[in-house]
Amino acid sequence: MDYIQYSFTVTPAEPGSDILIALLADLGFESFTQNESGLEAYIQEEFDNESSVKELSFEDFGFLYTRTEIPKTNWNEEWEKNFNPVYVDDLVCIRAHFHPASKNVKHDIVITPKMSFGTGHHDTTWLVSKTMFSLDFKNAAVLDMGCGTGILAILAKQLGATKILGIDIDDWSIENSNENAAINNASNIEFKKGDASSLPTTQTFEIILANINKNVLKKDLPAYFTCLKKDGYLLLSGFFTTDVDELKQLAITTGFEFIESYQKNEWAVIKLKK
Question: How far apart are CA 14 and CA 241, in angstroms?
Answer without folding.
Answer: 12
